[in-house]
Amino acid sequence: MTARVATVGRVHGGTDALGVARFDFSTNSNACGPCPQSLHDVQRADSTRYPDPEYNDLRRALADFHAVDIGRIVLAASASEFIFRMTALAAQTANARGEIATVWLPACAYGDYAYAAQAWGLRQVQDSRTAQLVWACEPSSPLGQAHTDWPAWLDQRDGALQLSERQLVLDSAYTPLQLQGRSSLTEAQRDRVWCLWSPNKALGLTGVRAAYAIAPLSADTVVQSLQALAPSWPIGAHGTAMLQSWVQADTQAWLAQSRNQLNVWKQRQLAGLTDLGWNCLPSVSHFFCARPPLGMGMDLPALRAAGIKLRDATTLGLPGFFRLAVLPPAAQDALFAALKRDRQVGKLMQEDSV
Q: Are 77 and 234 contacting, i.e. CB atoms less than 8 angstroms apart?
């Protein structure tokens, strides 16, 4: 029998016990943000009233933006909340048949997929073709690369399990900030998976929690089950304002400009780290993974005390590497200077030990 998913600790980038880092490479928020239009809309949100419990205007706006039927839009308090709710539904569905739900996870991935699976008792399997719940992310985190392990049943109508009994969720958190390439799925394949969107990263507003998913075609029963598991008013006034702003033409124009700027900054950041001997892995997004030179000790507490925060990728499935968001030149120069100091200190220590 396949072992259950191991307990996973919750490790995230961003604000920590020391507060907000001046130069925060650990979070994948858009460094060009916050988006001025979206920030204005969020600040003007009327927090004295309940939102419409059915979110009719918001769901219609999101459906029109993606050119899908409104019935396919499922709102969530955040991407993480949706991850836990979808996992709970997989467990509930399997338990009703007297089974234990199975899940497939990417080797390198956001920790909440595994944490939710552990919390709900799902069994992890190594073959995505046999899993009842499959997680994918494109561009992926921490690598920022295309997803390559799509199950063959995306193109098949037969199999041991019917498509309605399998759920593949494509986490599209970083799709709006993809700097090169395009989706590896065809439109027909995308209509057979769940697409999860959390625009707060792209808008530079990660403190505003709101997300939504687009259901596969003919998934009405699953949509209803997910809605039944949701609390009332999962999104507050500020999250509603952010999602309404997200679909506006001026917001999307700002986002396109920010992608251009991020691409310029990314090339500079890659070049600077490469010059310092770091091994930078390929990425199509506004972040990438890099490994320091072999033998170079990383004094992360000292960097954090200097206002620089990095994201150790060990808990994301990539030990020895760091995931670095692309930041403006001033932040890059602070990082380069600190790394040069660390390298010089390391050389002096080696010389003293000889």
A: yes
Q: Three-state DSSP class for 105? A: coil
One-letter amino acid of 65: F
Note down the domain range covering 302: 251-353
What is the domain-level CATH number for residue 101? Answer: 3.40.640.10
Query: Do 135 and 171 form a contact (C-beta atoms < 8 A)?
Result: yes
The amino acid that residue 249 corresponds to is: A
Alpha helices in 179-248 (DSSP H): 187-190, 220-229, 237-246
DSSP string, 276-308: TT-EEPP-SSSEEEEEPPTT----HHHHHHTTE
What pLDDT, in 10s, does the model give residues 243-300? 999 999 999 999 999 999 999 999 999 999 999 999 999 999 999 999 999 877 788 8
Report the candidate in 244, 256, 236, 135 with the shortest Cα–Cα distance to residue 199: 244
Do 256 and 244 lie in one domain? The reply is no
- The span from the CA of 345 to the CA of 352, in Å, is 11
Q: Write out pLDDT tens, residues 191-223.
A: 999 999 999 999 999 999 999 999 999 899 999
Indicate the pTM of the whole model.
0.90
Tokens for 38, please give them: 């979206």
The backbone torsions φ and ψ at residue 124, rounded to the nearest 5 degrees and listed phi first, read: -85, 135
Report d(CA 308, CA 13) in Å as an integer: 12
**Contact yes or no for 191/216 (Cβ under 8 A):** yes
d(CA 254, CA 262): 12
Among the candidates 248, 275, 309, a domain finishes at: 248
Burial 327-342 (b: 16+ CB within 10 A, else e): beeebbebbbebbeeb
Picking from 227, 248, 269, the residue at the C-terminal end of a domain is 248
d(CA 199, CA 30) in angstroms, rounded, equals 10
